[in-house]
Specification:
Length: 323
C-alpha cells in the first residue's frame, strides 16, 4: 500500500497543531486521518478513496475567507480540516493514485487459452473452457476464484459477455449464454450469431480446425496479481471484458477436440451413434419415419445425433394408441 509523502506529513502535522491551539476545525475522523499520515502508515485503497471524496466535497473551502494566510480568521475551520487530510499535497496524491488505477483498469490485456470445444452445433451453439487454471506459455497462471467478482458484475449488468473476433471490438461474433467458474477454469456456453458474416467465417474456421482457441480480454485490478521472482504472475483477480476466437493460443492445456471431424475417436463415436440411431428408428417404425428413410449425412454434428436418439427413445416409451 502507498505511504504518505513528506509534504502530506508536514501538512497533517500543521493541522494537528492548529487543532490543539484553536480547539476547532475538522472532525474526529479528520484527526485520526492526520495521525495516520503523520505516522507514515500505509493507507489502504479504501482510505485513499475517502480522501479523494473529502477533498472533492470540500473544495469550496479553498475559496472561503480565512483559508489563505493574511485573510481574516486564518486559519479557518475549513483550512484546518483541509490540513488534517494532508492538504493540497494529499489532494494531489490521492487523485493521482485513483487516476492511475483508472488508467490501469482501462488497459486491457489479452491472454490466450486453447479452447477445449465440447460441441459446436450447426446453429452456432458452443460450450467449452475459455480459460484454465494452468500456466500459459509465458508462465502466468490465473488462480481459482479470479473470475468470481467479474462474473457477478456481468450478471448484475444483465448483459451477455461479448464474444469477439480476434479482440476486435467492432467485430462481435457471438454472445455468452452462461459463464461459470469451476475447478478447472472458466466454462462458457454461448452462440455464434450466424446472421453475421464474420460469425459464419469463424464457424467455418473453427469446424476446419484452423482456429487454435479462445483469448480472454481483461485487466487486473490493483493488488490482483503477484509478480514472481522469475517475472511471471499469479493472477488472483481479473476484470473480464470479452473473449475472442483467435488463431494462435498460448495455453496448450487442451485441444480442439469437438471441431476436428478427422479425429479417429470422434469418428468412432459418431459411427456408434449412427448405429444406435438406426436401431431405434427401426424399433419405433410405427411412430417414427420409415427405417428406409435416408440416414442423416456424415456431416451431422454429435449433438444432432444425440437429439435424434433421445427423440426416438421417447417414441418407444410412449403407450401404443388404441389400447
Amino acid at each position: 500500500m502507498p505511504k504518505p509523502t513528506k509534504a502530506m506529513v508536514e501538512e497533517a502535522q500543521r493541522g494537528l497543531d492548529w487543532r490543539r491551539e484553536y480547539g476547532r476545525g475538522g472532525t474526529e475522523v479528520g484527526i485520526a486521518r492526520a495521525r495516520d499520515i503523520v505516522n507514515e502508515r500505509d493507507l489502504s485503497r479504501e482510505t485513499i478513496g475517502r480522501m479523494a471524496s473529502f477533498f472533492a466535497r470540500h473544495a469550496g473551502n479553498r475559496e472561503a475567507e480565512g483559508f489563505k494566510p493574511g485573510e481574516d480568521g486564518y486559519p479557518s475551520n475549513g483550512r484546518i480540516a483541509w490540513a488534517l487530510w494532508g492538504g493540497d499535497p494529499g489532494e494531489r496524491w490521492a487523485r493521482r493514485i485513483l487516476e492511475s488505477e483508472e488508467r490501469m483498469s482501462n488497459t486491457m490485456e489479452t491472454k490466450d487459452f486453447t479452447f477445449k470445444m465440447d460441441d459446436l452445433t450447426d446453429e452456432g451453439y458452443f460450450t467449452g473452457y475459455a480459460s484454465t487454471f494452468t500456466r500459459d506459455s509465458v508462465g502466468d497462471k490465473i488462480l481459482p476464484g479470479a473470475f468470481k467478482r467479474t462474473l457477478n458484475s456481468w450478471m448484475a449488468k444483465q448483459r451477455p459477455i461479448p464474444v469477439l473476433w480476434q479482440h476486435k471490438a467492432d467485430e462481435p461474433i457471438g454472445a455468452t449464454m452462461r459463464a461459470t467458474e469451476d475447478e478447472r477454469g472458466l466454462h462458457v456456453e454461448g452462440q455464434l450469431l450466424m446472421g453475421l458474416q464474420r460469425a459464419r467465417e469463424a464457424f467455418e474456421a473453427a469446424k476446419a480446425g484452423v482456429l487454435g482457441g479462445l483469448s480472454i480480454g481483461f485487466s487486473i485490478p490493483r493488488d490482483g496479481a503477484t509478480r514472481m521472482d522469475d517475472g511471471t504472475r499469479e493472477i488472483r483477480e481479473v476484470k473480464l471484458f470479452e473473449y475472442s476466437f483467435v488463431t494462435f493460443p498460448a495455453n496448450e492445456a487442451a485441444i480442439l477436440t469437438g471441431l476436428k471431424a478427422a479425429q479417429p475417436e470422434l469418428t468412432e463415436i459418431r459411427d456408434l451413434l449412427y448405429d444406435i440411431k438406426r436401431e431405434l428408428r427401426a424399433a419405433s417404425v410405427a411412430t417414427a419415419p420409415s427405417v428406409d428413410a435416408p440416414i442423416a449425412p456424415a456431416s451431422d454434428t454429435l449433438s444432432t445425433l444425440l437429439a435424434d436418439i433421445r427423440r426416438h427413445s421417447q417414441t418407444l416409451q410412449q403407450p401404443e394408441r388404441g389400447n
